[in-house]
Design brief:
Helix content is about 30%, strand content about 40%. It is of the alpha+beta class. It folds into 2 domains: about 160 residues, no CATH class; about 110 residues, no CATH class. Strand 3 and strand 4 form a beta hairpin. Helix 2 packs across helix 9 and helix 5 runs parallel beside helix 7.
Protein backbone atom coordinates (compact mmCIF):
# COMPACT_ATOMS: atom_id res chain seq x y z
CA UNK A 1 0.00 0.00 0.00
CA UNK A 2 1.43 3.32 -1.02
CA UNK A 3 1.85 5.97 1.69
CA UNK A 4 -0.81 8.65 1.68
CA UNK A 5 0.44 11.95 0.34
CA UNK A 6 0.11 14.89 2.74
CA UNK A 7 -0.92 16.98 -0.25
CA UNK A 8 -4.21 15.39 -1.13
CA UNK A 9 -7.02 17.23 -2.85
CA UNK A 10 -8.43 18.43 0.49
CA UNK A 11 -5.14 19.63 1.92
CA UNK A 12 -3.25 21.53 -0.75
CA UNK A 13 -0.53 24.01 0.29
CA UNK A 14 -2.46 26.83 -1.35
CA UNK A 15 -5.75 26.13 0.45
CA UNK A 16 -4.90 28.14 3.54
CA UNK A 17 -3.66 31.09 1.49
CA UNK A 18 -6.81 31.23 -0.54
CA UNK A 19 -9.16 30.66 2.40
CA UNK A 20 -7.60 33.21 4.77
CA UNK A 21 -8.79 36.77 4.37
CA UNK A 22 -6.00 38.90 3.04
CA UNK A 23 -5.37 42.28 4.73
CA UNK A 24 -7.40 45.00 3.04
CA UNK A 25 -5.58 47.52 0.96
CA UNK A 26 -5.15 51.05 2.31
CA UNK A 27 -8.28 52.35 0.62
CA UNK A 28 -10.55 49.64 2.07
CA UNK A 29 -8.93 49.86 5.50
CA UNK A 30 -9.50 53.62 5.66
CA UNK A 31 -13.10 53.26 4.55
CA UNK A 32 -13.84 50.75 7.32
CA UNK A 33 -12.08 52.84 9.97
CA UNK A 34 -13.90 55.94 8.79
CA UNK A 35 -17.28 54.22 8.96
CA UNK A 36 -16.71 52.98 12.52
CA UNK A 37 -15.09 56.13 13.91
CA UNK A 38 -18.03 57.14 16.11
CA UNK A 39 -18.10 53.69 17.73
CA UNK A 40 -14.39 53.31 18.44
CA UNK A 41 -14.05 51.75 21.91
CA UNK A 42 -11.21 54.11 22.82
CA UNK A 43 -13.46 57.08 22.10
CA UNK A 44 -16.40 55.71 24.11
CA UNK A 45 -14.11 55.15 27.09
CA UNK A 46 -12.98 58.78 26.94
CA UNK A 47 -16.51 60.11 26.53
CA UNK A 48 -17.59 58.45 29.78
CA UNK A 49 -15.28 60.87 31.61
CA UNK A 50 -16.46 64.00 29.77
CA UNK A 51 -19.16 66.30 31.25
CA UNK A 52 -22.43 65.94 29.39
CA UNK A 53 -24.90 68.60 28.33
CA UNK A 54 -28.42 67.24 27.74
CA UNK A 55 -30.87 69.24 25.65
CA UNK A 56 -34.55 68.38 25.47
CA UNK A 57 -37.34 69.67 23.26
CA UNK A 58 -40.77 68.47 24.37
CA UNK A 59 -44.46 69.27 24.00
CA UNK A 60 -46.64 67.98 26.82
CA UNK A 61 -49.88 68.47 28.73
CA UNK A 62 -49.69 67.86 32.43
CA UNK A 63 -52.19 68.02 35.27
CA UNK A 64 -52.76 71.52 36.65
CA UNK A 65 -50.56 72.62 39.51
CA UNK A 66 -51.77 73.10 43.10
CA UNK A 67 -49.06 75.06 44.91
CA UNK A 68 -49.04 78.86 44.68
CA UNK A 69 -45.53 79.21 43.24
CA UNK A 70 -45.93 76.77 40.35
CA UNK A 71 -49.48 77.86 39.52
CA UNK A 72 -48.32 81.50 39.32
CA UNK A 73 -45.88 80.72 36.53
CA UNK A 74 -47.79 77.86 34.88
CA UNK A 75 -51.51 78.70 35.10
CA UNK A 76 -54.23 76.35 33.85
CA UNK A 77 -54.79 76.76 30.11
CA UNK A 78 -56.72 73.59 29.20
CA UNK A 79 -58.52 70.57 30.64
CA UNK A 80 -57.73 66.88 30.53
CA UNK A 81 -60.07 63.90 30.86
CA UNK A 82 -59.63 61.81 33.97
CA UNK A 83 -61.40 58.46 33.77
CA UNK A 84 -61.80 56.17 36.78
CA UNK A 85 -64.06 53.33 37.81
CA UNK A 86 -66.47 53.27 40.74
CA UNK A 87 -67.41 49.85 42.15
CA UNK A 88 -71.18 49.68 42.63
CA UNK A 89 -71.09 46.03 43.62
CA UNK A 90 -68.81 43.01 43.35
CA UNK A 91 -69.59 42.56 39.67
CA UNK A 92 -70.73 46.02 38.59
CA UNK A 93 -68.53 49.04 37.77
CA UNK A 94 -69.48 52.56 36.82
CA UNK A 95 -67.10 54.54 34.63
CA UNK A 96 -66.79 58.19 35.59
CA UNK A 97 -65.06 60.77 33.40
CA UNK A 98 -64.10 64.12 34.87
CA UNK A 99 -62.31 67.14 33.45
CA UNK A 100 -59.20 68.13 35.38
CA UNK A 101 -57.38 71.42 35.08
CA UNK A 102 -54.22 71.02 33.00
CA UNK A 103 -51.29 72.96 31.59
CA UNK A 104 -50.22 72.48 27.96
CA UNK A 105 -46.73 73.67 27.10
CA UNK A 106 -43.56 73.34 25.07
CA UNK A 107 -40.23 73.23 26.90
CA UNK A 108 -36.78 73.60 25.40
CA UNK A 109 -33.58 73.76 27.40
CA UNK A 110 -30.27 72.28 28.44
CA UNK A 111 -28.96 70.81 31.70
CA UNK A 112 -25.26 70.25 32.31
CA UNK A 113 -23.60 68.55 35.26
CA UNK A 114 -19.90 69.05 35.88
CA UNK A 115 -17.86 68.40 39.04
CA UNK A 116 -21.02 68.12 41.14
CA UNK A 117 -22.46 71.43 39.91
CA UNK A 118 -25.74 71.56 38.00
CA UNK A 119 -26.45 74.18 35.35
CA UNK A 120 -29.90 74.62 33.78
CA UNK A 121 -31.21 77.00 31.15
CA UNK A 122 -34.76 76.23 30.07
CA UNK A 123 -37.72 78.03 28.53
CA UNK A 124 -41.36 76.95 28.92
CA UNK A 125 -43.89 78.35 26.44
CA UNK A 126 -47.66 77.82 26.95
CA UNK A 127 -49.21 76.09 23.95
CA UNK A 128 -52.63 77.63 24.67
CA UNK A 129 -53.68 81.03 25.99
CA UNK A 130 -51.84 84.28 26.59
CA UNK A 131 -49.84 83.48 29.69
CA UNK A 132 -46.22 84.54 29.72
CA UNK A 133 -43.37 82.25 28.78
CA UNK A 134 -41.10 81.33 31.68
CA UNK A 135 -37.37 80.82 32.00
CA UNK A 136 -35.62 78.62 34.55
CA UNK A 137 -31.91 79.24 34.86
CA UNK A 138 -28.97 78.82 37.19
CA UNK A 139 -27.44 81.61 39.24
CA UNK A 140 -23.79 81.15 38.18
CA UNK A 141 -22.48 82.96 41.25
CA UNK A 142 -24.37 81.09 43.98
CA UNK A 143 -24.55 77.33 44.56
CA UNK A 144 -27.99 75.83 45.18
CA UNK A 145 -29.66 78.88 43.63
CA UNK A 146 -31.91 79.07 40.57
CA UNK A 147 -34.28 81.65 39.05
CA UNK A 148 -37.82 81.19 37.74
CA UNK A 149 -38.73 84.27 35.74
CA UNK A 150 -41.46 85.47 33.41
CA UNK A 151 -39.94 86.36 30.05
CA UNK A 152 -41.99 89.52 29.51
CA UNK A 153 -41.50 90.89 33.06
CA UNK A 154 -37.93 91.09 34.39
CA UNK A 155 -39.23 91.97 37.86
CA UNK A 156 -41.48 88.92 38.12
CA UNK A 157 -39.00 86.31 39.29
CA UNK A 158 -38.54 83.91 42.19
CA UNK A 159 -35.32 82.53 43.64
CA UNK A 160 -35.57 78.80 44.36
CA UNK A 161 -33.22 76.13 45.72
CA UNK A 162 -32.43 72.66 44.39
CA UNK A 163 -35.31 71.00 46.27
CA UNK A 164 -37.84 73.43 44.80
CA UNK A 165 -36.35 72.99 41.31
CA UNK A 166 -36.65 69.22 41.66
CA UNK A 167 -40.29 69.57 42.73
CA UNK A 168 -41.16 71.84 39.79
CA UNK A 169 -39.55 69.53 37.23
CA UNK A 170 -41.30 66.51 38.73
CA UNK A 171 -44.64 68.27 38.35
CA UNK A 172 -43.84 69.37 34.80
CA UNK A 173 -43.11 65.71 34.04
CA UNK A 174 -46.59 64.81 35.32
CA UNK A 175 -46.15 63.91 38.99
CA UNK A 176 -48.76 65.03 41.53
CA UNK A 177 -47.50 67.62 44.04
CA UNK A 178 -48.58 65.44 46.99
CA UNK A 179 -46.57 62.50 45.62
CA UNK A 180 -43.53 64.77 45.19
CA UNK A 181 -43.88 66.02 48.77
CA UNK A 182 -44.04 62.45 50.07
CA UNK A 183 -40.94 61.59 48.03
CA UNK A 184 -39.08 64.56 49.52
CA UNK A 185 -39.99 63.41 53.03
CA UNK A 186 -38.60 59.94 52.31
CA UNK A 187 -35.43 61.42 50.82
CA UNK A 188 -35.01 63.61 53.89
CA UNK A 189 -35.43 60.66 56.25
CA UNK A 190 -32.85 58.69 54.27
CA UNK A 191 -30.38 61.57 54.06
CA UNK A 192 -30.61 61.74 50.27
CA UNK A 193 -31.96 65.29 49.99
CA UNK A 194 -28.65 67.17 49.88
CA UNK A 195 -28.28 69.60 46.94
CA UNK A 196 -25.51 67.46 45.41
CA UNK A 197 -27.60 64.25 45.42
CA UNK A 198 -30.73 66.05 44.25
CA UNK A 199 -28.83 67.61 41.36
CA UNK A 200 -27.85 64.15 40.20
CA UNK A 201 -31.52 63.14 40.40
CA UNK A 202 -32.49 66.27 38.47
CA UNK A 203 -30.09 65.37 35.67
CA UNK A 204 -31.57 61.86 35.44
CA UNK A 205 -35.13 63.25 35.60
CA UNK A 206 -34.31 65.76 32.85
CA UNK A 207 -33.11 62.94 30.60
CA UNK A 208 -36.24 60.91 31.36
CA UNK A 209 -38.51 63.86 30.51
CA UNK A 210 -36.86 64.18 27.11
CA UNK A 211 -37.11 60.46 26.37
CA UNK A 212 -40.76 60.26 27.46
CA UNK A 213 -42.27 63.45 26.01
CA UNK A 214 -40.17 64.50 23.04
CA UNK A 215 -36.63 64.72 21.73
CA UNK A 216 -33.43 64.41 23.76
CA UNK A 217 -29.90 65.29 22.69
CA UNK A 218 -26.71 64.72 24.70
CA UNK A 219 -23.47 66.46 23.80
CA UNK A 220 -19.87 65.88 24.85
CA UNK A 221 -16.95 67.96 23.63
CA UNK A 222 -13.18 67.37 23.71
CA UNK A 223 -10.42 69.85 22.88
CA UNK A 224 -6.81 68.69 22.46
CA UNK A 225 -3.94 71.18 21.90
CA UNK A 226 -1.45 69.45 19.60
CA UNK A 227 1.87 69.06 21.43
CA UNK A 228 4.12 69.34 18.40
CA UNK A 229 2.54 71.56 15.71
CA UNK A 230 4.22 71.77 12.33
CA UNK A 231 5.05 75.40 13.01
CA UNK A 232 5.59 76.34 16.68
CA UNK A 233 4.30 79.85 15.91
CA UNK A 234 0.96 78.46 14.70
CA UNK A 235 -0.86 76.52 17.48
CA UNK A 236 -2.91 73.53 16.38
CA UNK A 237 -6.02 72.18 18.12
CA UNK A 238 -8.08 69.07 17.51
CA UNK A 239 -11.71 69.38 18.63
CA UNK A 240 -14.36 66.69 18.76
CA UNK A 241 -18.07 67.02 19.42
CA UNK A 242 -20.14 63.84 20.01
CA UNK A 243 -23.90 64.33 19.89
CA UNK A 244 -26.57 61.68 20.40
CA UNK A 245 -30.10 62.68 19.42
CA UNK A 246 -33.07 60.50 20.31
CA UNK A 247 -36.69 60.97 19.34
CA UNK A 248 -39.59 58.49 19.12
CA UNK A 249 -38.70 57.48 15.57
CA UNK A 250 -34.92 57.21 15.40
CA UNK A 251 -31.67 57.67 17.30
CA UNK A 252 -28.84 59.46 15.52
CA UNK A 253 -25.21 59.96 16.47
CA UNK A 254 -23.44 63.01 15.10
CA UNK A 255 -19.67 63.19 15.18
CA UNK A 256 -17.91 66.48 14.42
CA UNK A 257 -14.11 66.51 14.13
CA UNK A 258 -12.07 69.65 13.58
CA UNK A 259 -8.36 70.29 13.15
CA UNK A 260 -7.56 73.99 13.32
CA UNK A 261 -4.41 76.03 12.88
CA UNK A 262 -4.34 79.49 14.46
CA UNK A 263 -2.22 82.04 12.65
CA UNK A 264 -2.27 85.08 14.97
CA UNK A 265 0.31 87.04 12.93
CA UNK A 266 -2.02 86.81 9.95
CA UNK A 267 -5.20 87.22 12.04
CA UNK A 268 -6.49 84.05 10.41
CA UNK A 269 -7.47 80.49 11.16
CA UNK A 270 -7.44 77.41 8.92
CA UNK A 271 -9.72 74.50 9.78
CA UNK A 272 -10.45 71.09 8.35
CA UNK A 273 -13.92 69.98 9.40
CA UNK A 274 -15.51 66.54 9.27
CA UNK A 275 -19.19 65.79 9.90
CA UNK A 276 -20.52 62.23 10.24
CA UNK A 277 -24.07 61.18 11.10
CA UNK A 278 -24.98 57.58 11.96
CA UNK A 279 -28.16 55.68 12.72
CA UNK A 280 -27.40 54.08 16.07
CA UNK A 281 -29.48 50.96 15.46
CA UNK A 282 -27.39 49.73 12.55
CA UNK A 283 -24.30 51.98 12.69
CA UNK A 284 -25.14 53.02 9.14
CA UNK A 285 -23.73 56.33 7.99
CA UNK A 286 -26.49 58.56 6.66
CA UNK A 287 -24.47 61.72 6.08
CA UNK A 288 -20.83 62.55 5.42
CA UNK A 289 -19.31 65.95 4.82
CA UNK A 290 -15.82 67.43 4.90
CA UNK A 291 -14.64 70.95 4.21
CA UNK A 292 -11.71 73.26 4.59
CA UNK A 293 -12.39 76.73 5.98
CA UNK A 294 -10.10 79.75 6.09
CA UNK A 295 -11.34 82.56 8.31
CA UNK A 296 -9.90 85.98 8.92
CA UNK A 297 -10.49 88.37 11.81
CA UNK A 298 -10.81 85.49 14.27
CA UNK A 299 -10.87 86.86 17.81
CA UNK A 300 -12.80 84.30 19.85
CA UNK A 301 -13.27 80.53 19.44
CA UNK A 302 -16.66 79.14 18.42
CA UNK A 303 -18.28 75.77 18.88
CA UNK A 304 -17.38 73.58 15.97
CA UNK A 305 -20.94 72.31 15.66
CA UNK A 306 -22.15 75.78 14.69
CA UNK A 307 -19.97 75.54 11.60
CA UNK A 308 -21.89 72.52 10.38
CA UNK A 309 -25.39 73.35 11.52
CA UNK A 310 -25.06 76.82 10.03
CA UNK A 311 -23.08 77.87 6.99
CA UNK A 312 -19.43 78.46 7.79
CA UNK A 313 -18.05 81.95 7.62
CA UNK A 314 -14.92 82.55 5.60
CA UNK A 315 -13.62 80.87 2.45
CA UNK A 316 -15.06 77.35 2.29
CA UNK A 317 -13.71 74.53 0.13
CA UNK A 318 -15.68 71.31 -0.01
CA UNK A 319 -13.47 68.22 0.27
CA UNK A 320 -14.00 64.83 -1.38
CA UNK A 321 -14.95 62.59 1.53
CA UNK A 322 -13.99 59.47 -0.47
CA UNK A 323 -10.51 60.66 -1.31
CA UNK A 324 -7.92 58.50 0.48
CA UNK A 325 -5.71 61.53 1.26
CA UNK A 326 -8.62 63.35 2.93
CA UNK A 327 -9.53 60.24 4.92
CA UNK A 328 -5.93 59.79 6.05
CA UNK A 329 -5.82 63.36 7.41
CA UNK A 330 -8.90 62.96 9.59
CA UNK A 331 -7.96 59.45 10.71
CA UNK A 332 -4.55 60.76 11.82
CA UNK A 333 -6.11 63.65 13.76
CA UNK A 334 -8.68 61.34 15.33
CA UNK A 335 -5.93 58.97 16.47
CA UNK A 336 -3.98 61.83 17.97
CA UNK A 337 -7.03 62.96 19.93
CA UNK A 338 -8.02 59.61 21.42
CA UNK A 339 -4.41 58.62 22.10
CA UNK A 340 -3.56 61.82 23.96
Amino acid sequence: MEPRSPFNDDNLPTDKLTSDRLPPDLEDDQAEYFADMAFDERLTNILELIPTATTIDITHTTTGFDDILTKHYFPTNTFRENTHHLALSDDELETITELDEAYSFRMYGVVEEESGTLSINARIDPEIGNASSVKIKTDPTTPDCFYVQKVDDEFDFTIINTKELFSILCQIAGADKRDVDQLMVRLNQSGFDSPQLLQTNIYELWTQIGETHGKRSTVREIAYPVEHPQDPHFPETINLRYEETEDPDITLIKLFLEHSVDMPDLDAKESHLLSLIFEQANHKSTHKQAEKVIESGVTTPRLISSRFEKKSKGRVTQLDINDSTVKALFINWFDQLISS
